[in-house]
Amino acid sequence: MAIQINQEIETINKGIVTNPYLRIEAYRIDKILGYFLVTTAMFRDKADADTNKFVYHEDYAQPIDRAPQTGPIATLITYNDSSFEYPVVIEFPLVVPEVVTEDIYEDQEVTKTITYNDFDENGDIVEKTRVETTIEKVKTGTHEVTKSKIDITLIGADPYGWAYSKLKTHYEGIFGAGNVIDC
After folding, report:
1. Range of 135's domain?
2. Are 9 and 86 within one domain?
3. How does residue 54 score in pLDDT terms, banded at 50, 70 and 90?
4. Whether pTM exceeds 0.85
5. Contact by Cβ (8 Å): 49, 23
């Protein structure tokens, strides 16, 4: 699963590339903050991408025995006479809107009479009072606000498929609708 960009780009390490190939290298779900983080890499084409992966877990630890890798396209690219870095790590929020009622608080000056025990001139315990003025947060009402509720279930049963649909939309924003296709 990957996407192909049907546009020509200029790269600093691969020269002119027609129809670059983009795939997900890793993803992570941040349940606490509600993000799906995707790490991507762009290659000249599918064949180039296929040489830049491991077949066996042990291959990573044995660099002498593995086939040489060319690496991905450097992040700095030129497209339509503009140079920019294509995003490698993209965060997609896993949230749904939810209307909640929140309390409204205001700072108000509050005066309280405080009763305390003290000693008189004979050493006897006497009850005294004093007035104290403080600033306190006081609830003055409520209002409804729309918040972004974290919903991990948005991913569904196919995290890669979900992520690729989001990536496609993201890259269509860069390269134009219709110029990013599923592979």
Report:
1. 100-143
2. yes
3. confident
4. no
5. yes
